[in-house]
Amino acid sequence: MMRLSRFGGNPHIGVFSAAGESFAFVSPNADKDYVATVTEVLGVETHLTSVAGSFVVGSLLAMNSNGIIVSGLAEQSEIKFLSKFLPVGTLTGAHNAAGNNILVNDNGAILNPDVDGRAVKKIERILGVPCVKMSIAGLNTVGSACKVTNKGCICPAETTAEEIKMLKDIFKVDVVKTTLNHGSKLLGPCLVANSRGAVVGDITTPIEMGKLEDALNLY
Known about the structure:
The chain is an alpha/beta fold and 219 residues long. 27% of the residues lie in helices and 23% in strands.
């Protein structure tokens, strides 16, 4: 299932939302219709939370079915809340925006090459998957560059053949180049998705929607 939406007038809904197979976390200023859309399309429980006191939940949180990584700036009350659902780890240092710097599904994860090497083992333990540090299409913020679920992966047009092979090997899914939100090359901010569905920014074109549907096998 796929549906067009926006968050408070902003089509970059992935900035404010993060989802896995069972849960989605959305900024606490989300309206009821947006929360209902995420819940229905993704088939998840949707919960409202901030991260580090901020509404940009999707930028600061990365998750799969095994765990959650949040910015090291997250407040203890936020970590305690998230821990009700899955094990939680924090990402500290200069590159602590976990959603922007981690691309993950239930098979593997890619990290911004600038993430502190000491953090890799913690991320692997919490997410329960092997981690590889690499850039994609010249971008170190791999969570912003791409989107991956357990059924498919989308990446920017500039992604090389070698990078696509690595994405396929790491995530165990097919990989498709595309844009979203009417030509945006940064795909992560444009949507929130899992293996059952995708909610995508409402300026995404019909051609882009078709590519997304094929890439993530949303039939």
